[in-house]
Structures are given as structure tokens and as C-alpha cells.
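=== RUN LOG ===
request id: a7f3
mode: sequence -> structure
chains: 1
length: 340
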Amino acid sequence: MYSPKEILVGLRNPSLIPKEIDYQVRKRTPHDFGIQGSYQTGNIGDRALGKQFKKQLEKGGHSARIFDRHTETSNTPNRVLGGGGVLHDWYGTEHLKKRLTYVSSGKNGFIIGVGAPGFQSADAQNLISQILPKLDLITVRDKWSKRNIESVCDVEVSVTACPAFLYDDPRMETNGRTGVNFRPYFSQEDKPDSVLKYYFGYDDLDNARESYMRNIKDICDKIEDPIFIPFHSIDEKFAREHLDIPVLEYTFSVEETLKRVSQMEKMVTMRYHSLIFAAICGKPVLPLAYEPKVEAVAERLEVPWYRPHKEIPLQFSQVSNVSSLQSLAKDNFNRLDELL
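=== RESULT ===
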């Protein structure tokens, strides 16, 4: 109930009434945006995405809540499937069905800044074809993802950039060291052989694993003053087991990891977001494209990239186009605002 004084204020200032109605609606709803993704798995890049989505939506005056990748229902009217390489059927279609069920069963549904590695099965292709045309907005982080969606679905897809580009360089004092990030990519614990072969073209997996291990040890032997920066707990475990260089302790902190990258003189990057963090901080990079998403972002940064199991020249390159990619990352949220 409103007091007589409050009612009088409303009568004298009619422009305040819509704002008050909007406030009362929001007060009765826990949040007006729900963002679903793999934000709590221990991957720093995914964590960075979740935090950036919440930050950008709240800057736009919305209340937002983060949900994990298994969530299928919530009370929010606006549902976002946000960031990360979430559209694929690497492990079957159940996880894909959960993601698409969540984003499509609210009042409004948006897929924002995602990667789409592709769809091998007919079931996955049918899911994509049935659900994506119902959504209000679809943006992807690269042209590769756009092609993969449009190959199975007649829907409008806009290419923007990964929302993680919206972080700022913390501008730490450089310590002169070379940051290194590798991941245990050719491990059986990571992705099934069928995924490595079908999606990423690794035919002779045994030789690829051997070449990869040989290459990363050779890189660590030749670069100046290397130090390993983990972007996941499995990175640290892998590095301590297989590399003879200093290894920083893994911490599930976007801010701390970004500061570590900012302190480096240059970076050897393998994980997707290790390359993005290095680009944000303006570091010369040596990118290892373990899958096409790294190749795609390296090309947008105009730096050469190398397969981790092929010949790798010890050559660091200065990134370009960072401000342009940051503008495109912001465009994810500008487009969202235009629809609301």
C-alpha cells in the first residue's frame, strides 16, 4: 500500500509511475535474467564468462542469476544461454537438450556469445532446427560457429566476440618472465577419441599425443624464464607431472589469473581464454590451436597459430584488433538491450 504522500508524488510526476510498476514487478521476482552455462566447473575462462554476463546485465539495470549447466527450469522470464562452446553433441544429446530446454522455455530466450563446435548426430541437428528459430537473439563468437549452426538450421545468427574480451588489463608490473599455459588435451580423461577425430581432425591419436608432449617440453626448454599459469586444476596437475618448470598454484579466480598474465613479458597460450587474457593485456603470444576455436580467435587477433602436435616455430607475435573485438563483445549486450 502507498501512503497519501506517495500517491500525491505519483500524481504530480506521472513519469515516475512506469518506473515504480517496473520496480514492484522486479521486487516480486527473484531476478529478471537467468544465465545458464558451465560457470562452476573450475575452468577460469568459463568462470570469467559467468561473471561478465552478470556484470553487464546488472549494468543495464537488470537483476541476474547464474545457473549451472544442468539447470532446465527457473522462475525468470528472460533466459540466456551464455558464452562458452555450449552447442555440440560431443557426449550425446542429453546435455544439449537441457541447455536448449532452459533457454527456450521462458518468456524470452537468448543465446549470447557462444561457440558452436558442431552437430554430428541427426538428433542434435533436429534439436537445433526445432528450437533455435523460436529464440529472440542468437550471437556467436566466431564465423566457424555461425557456419556450423547455419549448416543445420535456417536461423539468423550474428557474429560478435567472446564476452570475456570485456575484461580490462589490470596493468601489473611486468616481471620479465614468459607465461606458459598448456592443457592435457590428448588425455583419455579429456575428450573421447571419437570427438578428437570427428570434430578436430586428429587421425593418428597415439602419434599426436607423443608429438604434443615432445613439443611442449621442447618449448619449455627453449623459452626464456618460463612459468606455468593454470586455467584449470587439471592444468596444474598435468604441468607438475610432465614439465620441469615453475608452476603456479591453481586458484579459481578470474582476477588473480588475469593479474598473473598481466605480469608476464609474453605468453605461450593453449587454452582459448589464456589467449584472450594475453590479448587483453597486450602480450606477444605464441598460440597453440588445439581445436578450431583457438584458430578462429587467433586469426581475429591477426597472429599466426600452430597445431600442438605439428612443428612449432618459437616465434611470438603482437596481437591486433583487441579494441575492435572488445566493441563486438559489448555488442552482445547492446543487441540484447535493443530487444527489451
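=== NOTES ===
The chain has two domains: 29-159, 178-321.
The beta strands are 33-36, 64-67, 78-84, 108-114, 137-140, 158-159, 178-180, 226-228, 266-269, 285-287.
=== END ===
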